[in-house]
Give the backbone structure.
Amino acid sequence: MGEKKSMLRRVVTWTILGVLAVLAIRIALKLLGVLVGVVGMAFGLAMFLLFTVAPVVILGWLAVKAWQAFSKKNDTA
């Protein structure tokens, strides 16, 4: 009888450990999914800034520099 209790105890212990392991894996995968989502959003924002905002800023900066260069030439003449 004691051996059957011991076997039952082992089965229950391993079942509980299995359930806890599955829950831990699910939580880890959800956290990984959130992390991938955040990294993906950051990558998307970086690409938007790099290919949409940066060219406009660079063109504006070049226009200001050209304006300053032509203004200095007119002042000295």
Q: What stands out?
A: Helices lie at 2-76.
